[in-house]
Request: fold
Amino acid sequence: MAEYKNEFGEFAERPKVPKKLYDAKYIIGGLVVFFVVASFTLWPNLGKTVPAPQPKLDTPVIKKLAEADRKCILPASEMRAKHMQMLIDWRENVVRTKERGVATARGRDFVAPDGKVYLASLTNTCMDCHSNKAEFCDTCHNYAAVTPNCWGCHLESGQTLAEAK
Amino acid sequence: MGMDRREFIRLAGLSALLGLGGKGAFEIVRPGQALAGFQPEGKALEGKRWAMVVNMKKMDEATAAKCIEACHRVHNVPDFSAPKDPKDQLPPEIVHRTQIKWIWTEHFHNAFPGEEYEGMPENVKHMPFLVLCNHCNNPPCVRVCPTKATFQREDGIVMMDMHRCIGCRFCMAGCPFSARSFNWRDPRPYVKEVFPGQPTREIGVVEKCTFCAERLAQGLMPACVEASRGVLVFGDLADEKSEVRQTLGKYFTIRRKTHLGTNPQVYYIV
Reply:
């Protein structure tokens, strides 16, 4: 048996504390009430599944493309996973082009793996094809509860679309 | 147990070596994926030291107004006195105090304080001096920026990265030319017609003239230079054959507040 020291630091006999939950009905009752209240907002959705969003790709620009050209700059799975990182890379490369004392190559042209060159621009490249922000970007972002702050400054429709209008 | 000093140094050295070779290793595993390539652009205007000459002999109010209008239109600079929705109307003193300007006009005594003297030509006193960010060679705004949101490019342009700006306004305190404006409110409702393809700004960031870096990248001259029809001359100061260099060699020019040592790169022919 381990030696027990009392609150004065002296060796003593272990005090005998009865193993009993005092005020059990208040504590358990309180816990039940707490869990009921805390989970209250979850009940209406219990057992339901929210369907995964289906971003729409039927914009006029995409429809006009030939079947073979109807692909994004990277494979869809990669775009789905990495588009934000790619946009961040684009941002650094475009805005900080030619920064003094920074040795990395930077510029406005993005070369896709298939060799095609794109202008690295959210508004002028991405949104040219995906001109349906509400049905394309927002469906997934709302589903995943993320609010990217791109749109505080960047416009939702690109140059070619504005010219077409 | 644990690790002695020799073991630690050996491991640290090995991991440093691996770290140095990290990108190379990545290239072997997934070639071409580490930095899906960026190329230098072909048609862009290239320069070593961009500079501007304002020819005040040819400048008049109408030209100045045209330059300002062109600049503010292509960069979506808000005009707080003219909201899109009448209910966003602001009191005139707020409009004046919080205005955002990339390029504007000043009288001589404001543009060149300390340079005025008694008996100076009356017409010079009342000339509309077109003033903008001087893209100084020794920019105080870059030195004070705590996040490197404002930085100097190799071609001399003092550039803003709005994504990094935290709105501390140190740069505004640092700039002796008041070339920087702070977004005290969301500018969107006050941009009458959004210029396609160009972003606006958000509440809480500082903005200023960028010598139209995005237009230079497309091979275009800055918007104000294009609108001025020869009154403003823009080009590469490092190139002896450039128009700016020729103009500077032909006329005597003055610059704003040179005694402060910022080495401004906007020159005025008076």
Notes: The mean pLDDT of chain A is 87. The two ends of chain A are 87 Å apart (CA to CA). Chain A has six helices and two strands. Residues 76-95 of chain A form the longest helix (20 residues).
